[in-house]
């Protein structure tokens, strides 16, 4: 079975789910690239600037450090809430697929009678495939989102410890 055939069996809702999952994975990839390449450079720059400061204990110095930590926290958590929303949408789209598939089954039963199992099977396929796909996407999404959140928290704590150290 090809991907296109699978998507056709799942109906229109499965295509919508695919778009949500695609956007989700693009945002995950963006976060992974940020954590792997851009943030380490920014972190090294902040640590170098902090260690070059002669005054690290004044109110002004602490304000600069807190500003950097706030910027780091904001940059690290960017798009994480949107990713979480997209993950939450996946099972809802799956349930929408269930409802539309069952409507299709009932429509066939009303028009053709309940004696034609081949026609009813198409509606049942419309009902089950989006549900399964939505649940799988949500489970994977919850795992990946949790890993991203943990990775961001670890980097934030490490930066804070590095900036709190004295010369």
From TrEMBL:
<feature type="domain" description="MotA/TolQ/ExbB proton channel">
    <location>
        <begin position="53"/>
        <end position="158"/>
    </location>
</feature>
<comment type="similarity">
    <text>Belongs to the exbB/tolQ family.</text>
</comment>
<dbReference type="Pfam" id="PF01618">
    <property type="entry name" value="MotA_ExbB"/>
</dbReference>
<keyword id="KW-1003">Cell membrane</keyword>
<feature type="transmembrane region" description="Helical">
    <location>
        <begin position="13"/>
        <end position="34"/>
    </location>
</feature>
<keyword id="KW-0653">Protein transport</keyword>
<dbReference type="InterPro" id="IPR002898">
    <property type="entry name" value="MotA_ExbB_proton_chnl"/>
</dbReference>
<keyword id="KW-1133">Transmembrane helix</keyword>
<keyword id="KW-0813">Transport</keyword>
<keyword id="KW-0812">Transmembrane</keyword>
<feature type="transmembrane region" description="Helical">
    <location>
        <begin position="126"/>
        <end position="149"/>
    </location>
</feature>
<keyword id="KW-0472">Membrane</keyword>
<feature type="transmembrane region" description="Helical">
    <location>
        <begin position="85"/>
        <end position="106"/>
    </location>
</feature>
<dbReference type="InterPro" id="IPR050790">
    <property type="entry name" value="ExbB/TolQ_transport"/>
</dbReference>
<protein>
    <submittedName>
        <fullName>MotA/TolQ/ExbB proton channel family protein</fullName>
    </submittedName>
</protein>
């Amino acid at each position: 079975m090809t991907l296109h055939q699978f998507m056709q069996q799942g109906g229109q809702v499965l295509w919508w789910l695919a778009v949500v999952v695609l956007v989700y994975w693009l945002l995950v990839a963006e976060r992974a690239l940020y954590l792997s390449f851009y943030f380490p450079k920014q972190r090294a720059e902040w640590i170098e600037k902090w260690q070059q400061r002669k005054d690290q204990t004044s109110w002004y110095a602490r304000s600069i450090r807190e500003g950097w930590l706030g910027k780091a926290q904001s940059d690290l958590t960017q798009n994480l809430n949107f990713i979480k929303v997209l993950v939450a949408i996946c099972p809802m789209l799956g349930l929408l697929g269930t409802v539309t598939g069952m409507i299709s089954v009932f429509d066939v039963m009303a028009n053709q009678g309940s004696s034609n199992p081949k026609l009813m099977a198409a509606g049942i396929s419309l009902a089950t495939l989006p549900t399964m796909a939505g649940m799988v996407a949500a489970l994977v999404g919850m795992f990946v989102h949790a890993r991203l959140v943990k990775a961001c928290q670890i980097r934030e704590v490490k930066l804070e410890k590095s900036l709190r150290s004295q010369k």
